[in-house]
Design brief:
Layout (H helix, E strand, L loop, with lengths): L13 E7 L9 E4 L2 E5 L17 E5 L4 E5 L6 E3 L2 E2 L3 E2 L5 E5 L2 E7 L17 H13 L6 E4 L6 H10 L7 E5 L5 H10 L4 E5 L6 H13 L4 E6 L3 H6 L5 H7 L2 E4 L10 H12 L6 E2 L1 H9 L5 H16 L4 E2 L6 H13 L7 H10 L4 H8 L3 H10 L11
Parallel strand pairs: 11-14, 11-15, 12-13, 13-14, 16-17
Antiparallel strand pairs: 1-2, 1-10, 3-4, 4-5, 5-8, 6-7, 6-9, 9-10
Helix pairs in contact: 3-4, 7-9, 10-13, 12-13
Length: 395
C-alpha cells in the first residue's frame, strides 16, 4: 500500500487559510467552512487588520458541494486566481484569493492533528504533515522506504527527517543514482554502516551498480536504505530495467510525496526561507501581489524551481526590505500570465496599454484596475511590448 497524503479528499471540508496579511498575527490562521461563510473586511468576521480592505469586502463560504467567493462591492476589488470578480463565483479548488493586502487560500483538505512541523523538512500543510506522520511511524524500523514524487520535491529533506528520528548511531549518506558506480556504491554503503543511505533517482543507477547495492543490502543488517524516484519503479521492474530484488528491498514502505502546488499554504514561508539562505538574515516584506504570484505559479520542478526563482529575485534586489511585483523574476511573470490566459484573460493590444499608461501617468496599479488585471499581468505586458513604465510618469 502506498501512503498518500490527503491532497483533495472529496469528503474533506472546505478550509480557508490566511497566507499573507499586514497583521503578522493573522498569518496561517485557519477557518473551516463547513456549511458556513465568513465575511472579510475591516468590520468582517475575522477581525483582519487590513486598511486596504473595505469595511465589508468579500464573503467566502463552502459546503460539501463547492466553495464560493463573493465580492461585496469592495473599493479595491476581490481577486480570485489572479482575476477580479464581480458578484459571486464558484472557483475550482484550491483557489487563491486576494482582498486588499491579504492573500488567502480556499481548499478542500482535512486538518491533520498530532504532527509537528519539522526543521529537516519544513512545511505545515496537511498533505505535507501526512507524509511526516507516515515517515515518523516507520523511522525506528529497518524497513526500506521509497519516496515517490516529482522532481524537486525535497526527498533528501524527508530522508533527513527519517534519519533524525531513527535512533541510528551512524551517518546519513546521500547519492544520486546516475552518479553511482560500482565502486562508489561500495564506498557509500561502508560510510553509511549503522546509519542511513539515501539514493535519489534510484531508477537511474546502472545495472552493475544496482547489482552491487542489492548484494551489499543482502549482506548487511546495519544499514537503512531510503530511495527517491520520480518514475513508477514497479513498471521499471516489469520491463527489466530495474532489479526485482533491489525493488523488494526498498519498496516495503512506499510514500507518495505531494508536489508544491498541492501545498499552496507552504509556498510563502518556503520562499522566504530560500531568500534567507541566500542572504543570511534577509527577511523582506512582500507585497500581497508578490505572494499572489507565488501561489499562482505552477512550480514545474517544485522546491527546486522555488529556489531558482528566489535566486533570480535576489539578483534584482538582495538586501531590500520590501519586494514588489517589479522585483519578480521574468519566469514568474510569464507563467502567471500564461495561466491567466488559459482562464480567458485577454491580452490588451499595445496601443490600448499605452493609452492606459498615458491616461494614468504610468500608475501601474490604476492601469491594472481599469483593465481588470493585476499588476503582475501589467508588468508582463509592458515587458512584452518593450515599454518602460517610468517613461509615463511625470510630476
Amino acid at each position: 500500500m502506498t501512503h498518500t497524503p490527503p491532497e483533495a479528499q472529496a469528503t474533506a471540508p472546505v478550509r480557508l487559510t490566511v497566507v499573507h496579511s499586514p497583521d503578522d498575527d493573522q498569518v496561517m490562521r485557519i477557518e473551516v467552512l463547513d456549511g458556513r461563510d465568513v465575511t472579510l473586511g475591516r468590520d468582517g468576521d475575522m477581525g483582519l487588520s487590513d486598511s486596504s480592505m473595505s469595511r465589508r469586502h468579500a464573503r467566502i463560504g463552502g459546503n460539501a458541494v463547492a466553495g464560493w467567493v463573493e465580492d461585496l462591492g469592495s473599493k479595491n476589488g476581490t481577486w480570485v486566481n489572479g482575476r477580479r470578480i464581480e458578484g459571486r463565483t464558484e472557483p475550482p479548488l484550491p483557489a487563491v484569493i486576494r482582498a486588499g493586502d491579504t492573500v488567502l487560500v480556499v481548499e478542500r483538505v482535512a486538518t491533520l492533528k498530532g504532527v509537528e512541523p519539522s526543521e529537516e523538512a519544513p512545511g505545515q500543510h496537511p498533505a505535507h504533515l501526512q507524509v511526516l506522520q507516515h515517515l515518523q511511524s516507520a523511522a525506528g524500523s529497518n524497513t526500506g522506504i521509497l519516496l515517490i514524487g516529482e522532481p524537486g520535491t525535497a526527498k533528501s529533506s524527508l530522508a533527513a527527517y527519517v534519519h533524525a528520528r531513527s535512533g541510528r548511531h551512524g551517518l546519513l549518506v546521500s547519492g544520486r543514482g546516475a552518479q553511482l558506480s560500482v565502486g562508489s556504491v561500495d564506498s557509500k554503503v561502508r560510510e553509511a554502516a549503522g546509519g542511513t543511505l539515501f539514493i535519489d533517482d534510484i531508477s537511474e543507477m546502472s545495472t552493475e551498480a544496482q547489482a552491487m547495492l542489492a548484494k551489499l543490502m543482502h549482506e548487511s543488517r546495519q544499514l537503512r536504505l531510503i530511495a527517491g524516484t520520480t518514475v513508477d519503479l514497479k513498471a521499471e521492474v516489469d520491463r527489466d530495467a530495474f532489479r526485482r530484488d533491489l525493488y523488494a528491498a526498498v519498496s516495503a514502505y512506499p510514500v507518495k510525496v505531494p508536489p508544491l502546488r498541492a501545498r499552496l499554504t507552504d509556498v510563502r514561508a518556503l520562499f522566504l526561507a530560500a531568500l534567507a539562505e541566500l542572504e543570511s538574515g534577509w527577511d523582506p516584506m512582500l507585497h500581497a501581489e508578490v505572494v499572489e504570484a507565488l501561489l499562482l505559479h505552477r512550480w514545474p520542478t517544485n522546491e527546486r524551481a522555488l529556489r531558482d526563482v528566489a535566486h533570480a529575485v535576489a539578483d534584482k534586489g538582495t538586501g531590500r526590505t520590501y519586494l514588489d511585483v517589479a522585483d519578480l523574476a521574468t519566469e514568474l511573470l510569464t507563467t502567471v500570465e500564461e495561466q491567466l490566459a488559459q482562464q480567458g484573460a485577454a491580452v490588451p493590444a499595445q496601443v490600448e496599454l499605452e493609452d492606459a499608461m498615458v491616461a494614468d501617468h504610468g500608475n501601474v496599479a490604476r492601469v491594472a484596475m481599469k483593465l481588470g488585471a493585476n499588476r503582475v499581468q501589467v508588468y508582463r505586458w509592458l515587458e512584452r511590448y518593450g515599454l518602460d513604465p517610468a517613461a509615463y510618469r511625470h510630476d
